[in-house]
Amino acid sequence: MASTPIMSGAATPAMPAHWRDFVALTKPRVMTLVVFTGLCGLLAAPGHIHPVLAFTAILCIALGAGAAATLNQWWEADIDAKMKRTANRPLPAGRMDRQAALHFGVGLSFFSVLLMGVATNWLAAAVLTVSILFYVFIYTIWLKPRTAQNIVIGGAAGAFPPIIGWAAVTGDIGALPVALFMLTFFWTPPHFWALALFVRPDYAAAGIPMLPVVAGERATRRQIWLYTAIMAAAALAPVLMRLTGVLYGVVALAGTGLFVALAFQVYRSRETDPARMTAERRLFKYSILYLFLMFGAVVVDRWLLA
């Protein structure tokens, strides 16, 4: 059954929220990777964009990501209250009024899209709109409470930034940003399911049908291994399609090889105690570094080819 943004009276704040709570709603740590992939899409694009407009485009991507995160927390406030790792967020902790969070999220959404359209072009603004709506309505409201495959389809929302960054410069969508979209799309399941394995009790307590909860650890590890293999193919696709050069190819081979090795350790693990899942934690932490490395390599490689 879908979650509903209803909070108990105990969650009503006694005083206005602090500005830090509004920042916390945007999930700044998660936003870092979103902004970086968007920046890499912008820097890898052919053509020229004024530095001020480039900064504005990246700012819009950050604001759009923050808006989506805010609306996600507004909708899931009751769920967050049941999970240890999210219970101290502004809404479940009672530091902010739910209506204020809704207005903040909607306001950020409209502002980021309009600013992107005026500053760069309306194609970039349209893709930014799709990414926000996809995350809020398709992933948060529809998929997440209904299916264990939520993160597979919903992962598309976090894969749009390189396309947005590229479109902000060129006004179109090329093969390379689509390849980077696919890399991020197939990277998301092993990245997120590695986390889900060692926070499974939280999801179970909140009634969220994440894969480890409904299918168990073993099935989740098999899925991580499967999607890692698909991700590895996506990582090498830019080289095979001659969209990038040797430098990216070397980084892709080495970085993906380590990812595969860590995923294999997770696949072979039989650990059931979340507190002792070291292989899963290693994969989750490395997966974040991996995406930074891959996208950074794309930019450097494109500059060397220019």
Automatic annotation (TrEMBL):
Q: In which pathway does it act?
A: Porphyrin-containing compound metabolism; heme O biosynthesis; heme O from protoheme: step 1/1
Name the catalysed reactions.
heme b + (2E,6E)-farnesyl diphosphate + H2O = Fe(II)-heme o + diphosphate
Looking at the UniProt entry, the stretches that span the membrane are 30-49, 55-75, 96-116, 122-142, 163-186, 224-241, 247-267, 288-305
| Entry keyword set | Cell membrane, Heme biosynthesis, Membrane, Transferase, Transmembrane, Transmembrane helix
In which family does this protein belong, per the annotation? Belongs to the UbiA prenyltransferase family. Protoheme IX farnesyltransferase subfamily.
Question: What other remark does the UniProt record contain for this protein?
Answer: Carbon 2 of the heme B porphyrin ring is defined according to the Fischer nomenclature.
Protein name per UniProt: Protoheme IX farnesyltransferase
Which species does this protein come from? Sphingobium rhizovicinum
Name of the gene? ctaB
